[in-house]
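DM from R.C. (forwarded with permission)

"hey, sorry to bug you on a friday — could you get me a structure for this? deadline for the figure draft is monday and I only need the backbone to look sensible"
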Amino acid sequence: MTPVLSTHLFVRHRLTTVWLERAWNAGFPAVEIFCTRQHIDYRDKAQITELGHWFRDSDLKVHSLHSPMFSDDGWGRSGPHTVIDITERTKAKRIAMVGEIKRALEIADLVPFKYLIQHLGVKGQEYDDWRLEAAFSSLEEIKVFAGQRGVEVLLENTPNKMSSGERLNLFLQETHLNLNYCFDAGHAHMAHGIENEFAAMKDRIRSVHLHDNNGSEDSHLFPGEGTIDWNKTMALLRSCRSGCPLLLELAEPENMPHPIEEAKRVADRLSTIQPPEQ
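My reply, with the result:
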């Protein structure tokens, strides 16, 4: 499994080539860029152009881009109007939100990547048929726009009542959108359990997010710091026919002087876990 690092680990900092060089020097051949404007401002042509020139001359690849969740540069602190939710029922608001995602996708014009990781709804959201209809309209447009740039949209299981593995399967059956999945192990641990969620999503998993938690808080801990059974989890992931990456989506811990290097040590440790003997 190829180790990939999400820039979520240093999302509180502006994404510069210095951070990317650190990831490469630590031994990560690829990254997932976590798209939030205080980190990578998709409206800032100068920043995107600089990164585009750097990636063009670098061996480090961009595996995926995490779709923006807020339109401001303060992680939503500007107010609820900054939340980007593709299930928004008000058409004018939804069009504006999809527009933000399309602006982020334009990064692919200068920085190529394979996947866009997209949430269906926001944290804690209840199930709503009308919202799923809105999501269908949003994803139709996003899928076309992404496809024009060689990007595939992956839906991520998230902590709400609309995007468990089972709900995502039902959504695709009803809409015929034919999308694949990003399996988030930490979110699965908070929902119906990793084994159940993996079984529901397995056939469509193309990427993953690996992080730990206590089963109730989405804390994005380093694997081993929460209650996930990583021996069982890695055995499941190795059964993925699509050859999933070992993609770590971690929060920056306090009092850890070299988090990127520690993340690589964690990736190496996970990669050595062997399936149990039958």
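R.C.: lifesaver. The two ends are 22 Å apart (CA to CA).
me: no worries. The longest strand covers residues 61-66.
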